């Protein structure tokens, strides 16, 4: 029998983990506390404890070509950005396609994961689960933690003086489902992440007044980028990542800042961030809603009064009926002993954000904690491919290198990891021998090489070679733009769009050669 692996959770990460274990000939058992798969992407009207909670209008922030599993493109008729129901549909198709369902035990909660007494030699874990009120203990050779980071809301009320005397209603964004509660009211949204801005925009269609309070501002990106293309297919390319990472920090920041401010000047809208490193917010409506007076941006909250709020550096009080705290989530692993993953002030020591650094054996891994500016599926899938090979004893050996890189890879959840999405994918891909060689391809398949270098870095690139090679990868890369245009060119026949002109190809070839020679 193969090595037994326990997978905790059947969301995006858990499904990827289960599939990658099967690919490597391991024996995964996936435990899911609810009655269905999909994790974050499965909408339920009522809020369940310990489970993420969506509002019905949620749409993916990354486009379908940049969010796909690397050997399973989205159906071509799906829209480019996906409503949560379609995203869930895709996860179901993936589950059926790779026969994952029989590996999942629904209605089963993981109560605890502890080292076996002989852990130092075997690396085994004792996993206690509960189903139908009955507890069971099993021994597993390895564990993949895929329980996500959107279940425990962070609501630091102590940071908001006077909240105890506030007479209106307040709740965390996790409780939000429908905008009708805001009808005719004065709304304050605290925090400016993706949820905060989404909720503010929805509220402003029915509310009397909506204010967003943000201490640090934020860059704002629209899903619709240059020439109407999806933002991530323009931004996440090998060429632009090369430019961004090879430039000195301040210059790279200036360039990004310049690009982001071309659409609208963030200073004029009260949004220009002070801090350099964090994720931009994705929203298509906010600038026009600020311009039309539907939404006002204010600094941080100084204190709450009975029916109003005071902001820092603003003398006048603002009347408020409802406050929505969009203050994020705490990362917690209730089933793990503190000694396994130490989360101190939102800081955990995880090698490459995956392996706890002080375990004698690398037989426990955490997937999906990283929040890069790019699709999460390609990232968790790559983590799962690497981890399943480490478990099997074939992948990059983790132990000796771990100690060295700790200082470089301490992980703070709040400041967004300064990890460049593409670099992170490349790093893990190189561990398992799946990183595409642009130079190698330049002489054997120049069209593919140019598409990979100048075009969007879609995850299919990581299936061109190495373990888990997929026959359809080249075709998927060369037809990615067709799948983007198919759902929008509905009035005229969709032609092909990705063809390089011959001149462009020659210039591209030379630029690429130069890039390779000068250290890419």
From TrEMBL:
It is a single-pass membrane protein. Its cofactor is FAD. GO terms for molecular function: flavin adenine dinucleotide binding; N,N-dimethylaniline monooxygenase activity; NADP binding; trimethylamine monooxygenase activity. Pfam families: FMO-like. Its main location: endoplasmic reticulum. The chain crosses the membrane at residues 500-519. It catalyses: N,N-dimethylaniline + NADPH + O2 + H(+) = N,N-dimethylaniline N-oxide + NADP(+) + H2O; trimethylamine + NADPH + O2 = trimethylamine N-oxide + NADP(+) + H2O; hypotaurine + NADH + O2 + H(+) = taurine + NAD(+) + H2O; hypotaurine + NADPH + O2 + H(+) = taurine + NADP(+) + H2O. It is an enzyme of class 1 (oxidoreductase). It is found in: Endoplasmic reticulum membrane. Its EC number is 1.14.13.148, 1.14.13.8. Keywords: Endoplasmic reticulum, FAD, Flavoprotein, Membrane, Monooxygenase, NADP, Oxidoreductase, Transmembrane, Transmembrane helix. GO terms for cellular component: endoplasmic reticulum membrane. It comes from the Eukaryota. Broad spectrum monooxygenase that catalyzes the oxygenation of a wide variety of nitrogen- and sulfur-containing compounds including xenobiotics. Catalyzes the S-oxygenation of hypotaurine to produce taurine, an organic osmolyte involved in cell volume regulation as well as a variety of cytoprotective and developmental processes. Belongs to the FMO family. This is Flavin-containing monooxygenase 1. It comes from Elachura formosa (spotted wren-babbler).
């Amino acid at each position: 029998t193969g090595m037994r692996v326990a997978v905790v959770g059947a969301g995006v990460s858990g499904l990827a983990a289960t599939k990658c274990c099967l690919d490597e000939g391991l024996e995964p058992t996936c435990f899911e506390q609810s009655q269905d798969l999909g994790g974050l992407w499965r909408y339920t009207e009522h809020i369940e404890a310990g489970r993420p909670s969506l509002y019905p209008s949620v749409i993916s922030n990354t486009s379908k070509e940049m969010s796909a599993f690397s050997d399973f493109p989205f159906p071509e008729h799906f829209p480019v950005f996906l409503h949560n129901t379609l995203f869930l549909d895709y996860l179901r198709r993936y589950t059926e396609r790779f026969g994952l369902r029989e590996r999942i035990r629904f209605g089963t909660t993981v109560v605890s994961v502890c080292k076996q007494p002989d852990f130092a030699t075997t690396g085994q874990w004792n996993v206690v689960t509960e189903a139908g009120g009955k507890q069971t203990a099993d021994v597993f050779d390895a564990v993949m933690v895929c329980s996500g980071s959107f279940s425990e809301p962070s609501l630091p009320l102590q940071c908001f003086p006077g909240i105890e005397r506030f007479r209106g209603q307040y709740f965390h964004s996790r409780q939000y489902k429908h905008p009708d509660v805001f009808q005719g009211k004065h709304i304050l949204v605290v925090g400016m992440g993706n949820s905060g801005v989404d909720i503010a925009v929805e509220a402003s269609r029915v509310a009397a007044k909506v204010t967003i309070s943000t201490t640090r501002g934020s860059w704002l990106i629209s899903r619709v980028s240059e020439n109407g293309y999806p933002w991530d297919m323009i931004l996440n390319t090998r060429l632009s990542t090369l430019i961004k990472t090879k430039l000195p920090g301040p210059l790279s920041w200036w360039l990004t800042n310049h690009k982001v401010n071309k659409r609208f000047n963030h200073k004029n809208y009260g949004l220009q961030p002070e801090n350099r490193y964090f994720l931009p917010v994705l929203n298509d409506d906010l600038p026009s809603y600020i311009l039309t007076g539907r939404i006002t941006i204010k600094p941080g909250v100084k204190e709450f009064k009975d029916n109003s709020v005071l902001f820092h550096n603003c003398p006048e009080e603002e009347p408020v009926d409802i406050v929505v705290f969009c203050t994020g989530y705490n990362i917690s692993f209730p089933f793990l002993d503190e000694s396994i993953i130490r989360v101190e002030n939102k800081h955990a020591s995880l090698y490459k954000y995956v392996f706890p650094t002080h375990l004698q054996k690398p037989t426990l891994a955490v997937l999906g904690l990283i929040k890069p500016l790019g699709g999460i599926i390609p990232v968790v899938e790559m983590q799962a491919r690497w981890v399943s090979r480490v478990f099997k004893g074939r992948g990059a050996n983790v132990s000796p290198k771990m100690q060295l890189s700790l200082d470089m890879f301490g992980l703070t959840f709040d400041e967004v990891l300064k990890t460049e999405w593409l670099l992170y994918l490349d790093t893990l891909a190189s561990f398992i021998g799946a990183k595409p060689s642009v130079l190698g391809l330049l002489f054997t398949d120049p069209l593919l090489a140019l598409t990979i270098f100048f075009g969007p870095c879609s995850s299919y690139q990581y299936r061109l070679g190495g373990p888990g090679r997929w026959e359809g990868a080249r075709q998927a890369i060369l037809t990615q733009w067709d799948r983007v245009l198919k759902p929008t060119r509905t009035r005229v026949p969709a032609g092909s769009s990705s063809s390089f002109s011959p001149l462009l190809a020659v210039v591209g070839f030379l630029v690429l050669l130069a890039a390779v020679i000068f250290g890419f």
